[in-house]
Specification:
428 residues; mainly beta; Cathepsin D, subunit A, domain 1; 2 domains; 6-stranded mixed barrel; 4-stranded antiparallel beta sheet; globular
């Protein structure tokens, strides 16, 4: 049973992809421009507060889901997934093709869109009608892709059907094969991708579908596989950069990094769609923070560990790590902390000028160190308020996107590795 969660990106970012033929190891290289969705009528402080609020709601949902899932409180036939991803991409399915805008989600696997006939479906673009496509075919329920949905191997219909239940809603329909075009304009076509043709969606509007980029069999990266050399990378601009500038997402051999630091992912069979990373400790100003040994270990029951998530704004650490880190940071900064709850932060300082901030390094297995510049540790919540872009949570830890800004990060699903190096994302 795949207990993957639907962990959507929280940051409001839309992007389109163009796919070009390549003679390298993979058949395709994909390069995407990531741009922030505008939020009209609010200032930068309000935008940051909204992002932090979404980040906290997401963190709380993940905490509850992990604990309930491990405790066995969910029916195996009805896995609950965390919805809320808000990175969007242009996708088209069918022959002739029908375009739609889909949420991109690194923590889930299924690719799906709303299909005719459709009950309680709401989207701005035309709904895909499989009866009008010459390339549509159903996936049999005996197929391993159907089993990846959590469908029982016994007593099913000849064709695979599914029912996905999310925290915010649900979608159900038929698993099918279809031609898939990624991006707009000259985007290339993939002739046979398994996707969900949803006939009933509730609580998920106004989006027309979702593209999963998790680690399971049904995800886009897994199905494209060797066509994109089983890898993708991204480089995220800081939130303070102009909204007209674009971040970057790359699939395929072009995503490779030279001179990068690399460590292996950890696989968690309880939550196979998560990208777990092997954090071992944290160093502040060259001195190890007093965090108990084994705090970040993944436990045999599936609890613990740390995941990397481009959609969670802040980094969240378990209390055993966050409390001593917070104390060490306070000792290293010659200012009096101030209340930051009005903007959603735990530790803030009232200052408008330059502040001597400590250097922070995340230590990973294999003596791999991720050195964070000050702007990846603290954010200016307002002109006079500087805040730590971290918080506390229970159960597991999350490496968020503030800590990833201006790093190029490569996910290699074939080698089971993550690579990273500092980069100027606006110049790639």
């Amino acid at each position: 049973m795949d207990f993957s969660k639907l962990l959507g990106f929280v940051a409001f970012i839309c992007f389109s992809i163009s796919m070009t033929a390549s003679s390298s190891i993979g058949q395709f290289n994909l390069r995407a421009n990531l741009t922030r969705r505008s939020e009209e009528g609010i200032d930068s402080t309000q935008r940051l507060r909204r992002a932090v609020d979404r980040s906290k709601r997401r963190m709380n949902t993940i905490e509850a889901f992990v604990e309930q899932q491990i405790a066995g409180q969910f029916d195996a036939e009805t896995p609950i997934r965390v919805a809320g991803g808000e990175f969007l991409m242009d996708v088209a399915v069918g022959t002739p093709s029908v375009s739609f805008e889909a949420i991109v989600d690194t923590g889930s696997d299924l690719i799906w869109t709303q299909c005719m006939p459709c009950q309680k479906c709401d989207q701005a673009t035309p709904i895909f009608d499989p009866s009008k496509s010459s390339t549509y075919s159903r996936v049999p329920c005996t197929n391993s892709l159907c089993y990846a949905l959590g469908v029982s191997k016994t007593g099913c219909n000849p064709d695979c059907t599914y029912d996905y239940t999310y925290v915010s809603g649900e979608t159900s329909g038929d698993l099918a094969y279809e031609s898939l075009s990624i991006g707009s304009g000259s985007g290339s076509n993939v002739p046979r991708i398994a996707f969900g043709c949803s006939h009933n969606s509730q609580g998920l509007s106004p989006y027309a579908g979702l593209v999963g980029l998790g680690r399971g069999l049904l995800s886009l990266i897994s199905q494209l596989g060797p066509m994109v050399d089983n890898k993708f990378s991204y480089c995220l601009l800081p939130r303070t950069d102009s909204s007209s500038q674009t971040s970057l997402l790359i699939f395929g051999e072009s995503a490779s990094l030279s001179g990068a630091n690399t460590f292996a992912f950890i696989k968690n069979s309880a939550f196979p769609s998560f990208w777990y990373i092997p954090l071992t400790g944290i160093t502040l100003n060259g001195k190890p923070v007093n965090i108990p040994a084994g705090t970040f270990d993944l436990q045999s029951n599936g609890r613990g560990g740390m995941i990397i998530d481009s959609g969670t704004t802040l980094t969240y650490l378990v209390e055993a790590a966050y409390t001593p880190l917070r104390e060490a940071i306070q000792s290293a900064i010659d200012l009096t902390p101030t209340d930051g709850s009005s903007v959603g932060f735990d530790l803030c300082y009232q200052t408008s000028g330059k502040v001597a901030l400590p250097s922070l390094t995340f230590n990973f297995a294999g003596s791999v160190n991720y050195e964070l510049p000050p702007e990846n540790v603290f954010v200016r919540a307002s002109e006079n308020l500087l805040c730590l872009a971290m918080g506390a949570m229970r159960g597991l830890s999350i490496f968020g996107n503030v800590q990833q800004q201006n790093f190029q990060i490569l996910y290699d699903n074939a080698q089971n590795t993550l690579s990273f190096k500092p980069a100027k994302c606006d110049s790639l």
